[in-house]
Write a structure and sequence with these properties.
Elements (H helix, E strand, L loop, with lengths): L5 E4 L5 E3 H13 L3 H11 E8 L4 E3 L1 H14 L4 E11 L2 E9 L7 E9 L5 E10 L5
Parallel strand pairs: 3-8
Antiparallel strand pairs: 1-2, 3-4, 5-6, 6-7, 7-8
Helix pairs in contact: 1-2, 2-3
Length: 136
């Protein structure tokens, strides 16, 4: 792991492993079981966590889990994956992701900036959509 994949210390003094955090974030977006997805959101996100992209602006576990569920319905059978490495400093990380059929070129490509709070959980994600298919 490169130094760029580590962030600042959390409340307990441990360092945030942003590569693992980004992977857990992607896994949460891929969780199809609503109960497991809600539990993953609660583990990963601060209670007042906020997710913003060009389409939605939501806050809290319930709204974030519902947003992920809606994306899964819209893109049924597709999966998110990290594209490339995770770049980070202090409490922020940025990474590119793709959404599409497994093993194929992603249909949607985006770029997220994630910020963690003092407890090491996600406080804010600012999402950008770099490539979206027409009509999506």
């Amino acid at each position: 792991m490169t130094a760029a994949a580590r962030g600042g210390p959390t409340e307990d003094g441990t360092m945030t492993d942003f590569t693992q955090l980004a992977q857990s974030y992607i896994e949460t977006w891929n969780e199809t079981d609503a109960t497991a997805r809600r539990a993953a959101v609660e583990r990963l996100w601060a209670p007042t966590g906020r997710y913003v992209d060009p389409i939605v602006d939501v806050q809290g576990h319930e709204q974030i889990a519902a947003t992920i569920g809606a994306v899964q319905e819209q893109f049924a059978g597709m999966a998110f994956e990290l594209l490339g490495g995770v770049d980070s400093h202090h409490a922020q990380a940025r990474f590119q992701w793709g959404l599409g059929p497994a093993g194929q070129e992603p249909l949607v490509v985006g770029f997220d900036v994630l910020e963690v709070g003092q407890d090491g959980r996600v406080a804010t994600v600012l999402g950008f959509l770099d490539r979206v298919p027409a009509g999506a």
